[in-house]
Amino acid sequence: MSESSRRAMEFGKLNYLIIDDFENFRLSMRQMLRSCGADRIEQAGTAAQAIRHCTYNHVDVVLCDYNLGEGRNGQHVLEELRHRKLLKRASLFLMVTAETSKQMVMGARENQPDGYLTKPINRAMLDQRLGALIEQRNALYPINRELDRENYPEAISLCLQALPKHPRYRTWLLKTLGDLYFQLGDLSHAARVFDDALKQRELSWARLGRSKVMLANRNYEDAVASLSQLIARHPDYMEAYDLLAEGLQRQGKLVDAQHTLEQAALHSPNALLRQRQLAQLAEANQDLEAACEAWRKTVTLGTHSIHDSADHYLALAQSLTDLSEGDAEEAGAERADEALNLLKQMGKRFPEQPELDLRSRLIQCRVLAGRGKASDANRLLDQIREDGGDGQSLTADTALDYGKTLFRLGHAGEAKTLLAELAERFASDNEVLNRIEALLDEPVGFRQKLQARTLNRDGIKAFESGDLSAAVEAFSQALEIVPDHAALNLNLVQVLMKQRHSEADSSALLDRCQRCLDRLAGLPEQHRQHRRYLALRRKLEELTP
C-alpha cells in the first residue's frame, strides 16, 4: 500500500466537525477533507450548534474558525469543550483563522489547541498539517485512552513502553510522564523526569514542571527564582506567570504576586480565569482600583464564556460601591451609577435566583447610603427584612454581606447578632470565622478602613522606635474610626502600660487601659486576639491597686 493510500485510510477512520459561519468555507473545507480520504464530516455554523453536536456525538477532529461572527468565537468553543470534557484526550482541535494578532493567538493558546491553520488553506497544507497530527494521535492513542479513563498508573506504564518505540514523540511522552507522576504525588519520579529532560537541553515545560515540584516541596525561594528566569527567557509563557504568582503568594508576597499577574494580563488579556485571580489578589492587597479594572475585564470576558458567573458581577459591584463611598467627586457618583447598572445587568442575565436578588439589594443599600440617601437605603433594608431576610437561612457570603450592610446603615446591634448566629453555624469553618472577625473589627467603609490601618502601622512604628506618645496618638486616632477593633485596643493598652513607668500618676493611664479592655469584654474565644486580651487583662489586674 502506498503512503498516500495509507494516509487516506487513516483520514477515513475519523469523525470530523467543521465550524465556520460562512457556508462556502465549510463546503470548501469539506471538499478538501474528502479529497484527503475523510468521509464522516459534519458542519456547524455557530458556536451553539457546535457545542450541541459535540454534546451528543463523538468527534475526532474539530476544525474551528476563530471568528464566528456575533457572539462566541473559536476560543470560547474550545474553552467550553475542554471545560465540559466534551472532547476526548485523543481528539484534535485545530483553530482556523485569517487573524494572526498576538492577542488572538495568546487567548486561544490558553486552552491549548492542537494546531493552527491560517487562511487561505489549500489541500496540500491540510493534508500535511492534519496528517501529521493524525499520525501522532494514532501512535499515542492508547495512552490518551487511559488518561480519559483516569487510569494514571497504566498511562505511566504505556508512556515508559512508548519511549523507545516512538522517539519522535519523546518530548510529548516525557512531559506527560512527568505530569502524571506529579499528579499522583510521586514528586521524586516527577523531578527525575524533568531533570533528565533539562540535562538534554533547556525546555520550558521541563523547567515549569521542576518548579512545580519545588513548590510542592515548599522550596519556595528556589521555585520563584527558577520561574523568574523562565519568564525572562520566555516572556510569552503564561503558565510560568501563574505558577510564579502562586509561589509568591505562598511566600506571603501578595503585592509581587499581583504585579506578576498584571504582567501576564498585558501579554494575554483575554484569559478570564487569570483576570479573576488578579482581581482577588488586588482585593487582598486593598488595591481596589486595580481590583475594579480586573473584575470589569472578568465580567466583559464572561459574556460568552462558560466561566461566566454572577459572583463576578457582585464582586465588581461591591468594589465600585466601596470606592464610591465617601467620594464626593464626580468619579464617586459615576462608580455608584456603574454599580447600580451592573446589578441590573446581573438580574437580567441570572434571573429568578432569590439569594442573588438579596445580595444585589444589599449592595444597592450601601450605594444609596454612600451617596447620602440614608432614608432610601433604610426603606430598601426594611423591604429586605419584610421579605424574610434572616441570617439562619443564608449562605455565609450573603450573611456577611448582610452584616456589612447593617453596619454601614448604622444598625450595629443587629449586625453583631447576625454575625454571632453565623459564627455558631460555621463554628468549624476557620475561613468564615476569620471573615466574621475582620468585619467585627472594621465595620466601616473602605476609605476609613485604609485610614485606620495606616494609623495602626504608624503607631506600631512609633512604638518600635520608642516614641510612646506618638504611638498613643496614632492608636487613639485609629480607634476613633474603628472603636471595637481588638488589635488596636490591645496595642493601645500595651503602649499605655509601658508609658506608665514615666508617669508620676499612672492611675489615669490604667483607667484608660481598663476602658479599652472593657470594649473587648465579649471577645469570642476563637478570635486571634483572645489570648493576648486575657494576658493583658491579667497584667492590668496585677498593676491596679
The chain-level structural class is mainly alpha
Radius of gyration, in Å, reads 30 Å
**Strand order within the widest sheet?**
2-1-3-4-5
Quaternary:
single chain
The largest pleated sheet is described as: 5 strands, parallel
Helix content percent band? 55-70%
Tally of alpha and pi helices:
27
- Return the average pLDDT rounded to an integer: 92
Segments where pLDDT lies below 50 for 5+ residues?
none
Q: Would you identify the CATH H-level superfamily of the domain at 3-139?
A: Response regulator
**Proportion of beta-strand residues:** under 5%
Q: Gap between N and C termini, in Å?
A: 105 Å
Task: Sum up the overall morphology in one term.
Answer: elongated
Task: Give me the CATH architecture of the domain at 3-139, please.
Answer: 3-Layer(aba) Sandwich
Number of strands: 5
Topology-level CATH name of the domain at 3-139 = Rossmann fold
CATH level-1 class of the domain at 3-139: Alpha Beta
TPR repeats: 171-204, 452-485
InterPro entries: CheY-like_superfamily, Sig_transdc_resp-reg_receiver, ST_Response_Regulator, TPR-like_helical_dom_sf, TPR_rpt
Modified residues (4-aspartylphosphate): 65
Pfam family, one: TPR_16
